[in-house]
Design a protein that fits this description.
Elements (H helix, E strand, L loop, with lengths): L6 E4 L13 H11 L3 E7 L2 E7 L4 E7 L3 E5 L5 E10 L2 E8 L7 E8 L2 E3 L1
Parallel strand pairs: 1-9
Antiparallel strand pairs: 1-2, 2-3, 3-4, 5-6, 6-7, 7-8, 8-9
Family: Belongs to the calycin superfamily. Fatty-acid binding protein (FABP) family.
Pfam family, one: Lipocalin
InterPro entries: Calycin, Fatty_acid-bd, ILBP, Lipocln_cytosolic_FA-bd_dom
Amino acid sequence: RDAGRGQPATSSSASSPLRPGVNAMLRKVAVAAASKPHVEIRQDGDQFYIKTSTTVRTTEINFKIGESFEEETVDGRKCRSLATWENENKIYCKQTLIEGDGPKTYWTRELANDELIL
């Protein structure tokens, strides 16, 4: 389980801003911004720091695998998240909204052949 630093990223997440329930303007901005995000990942055992930078916004999260933490969904809603190892190279993180209803969201980060897959 090696963490990448400043890795180019590709996107394949079901928490995509293109899913139903996300307004059209946010979809356009997210697609433009997320096409080539810059992602920095630091790892110390099961403790992670992930910084994702796009032309629109920068997000930073700190979490430990198996422990819940608070973050925001791509459209800015507060959620409680839980990251787990899906396999030795892939993290799966389920997001649960703190308030209100909305589509179920999650994100993944996978290192495959020196490429970070979002």
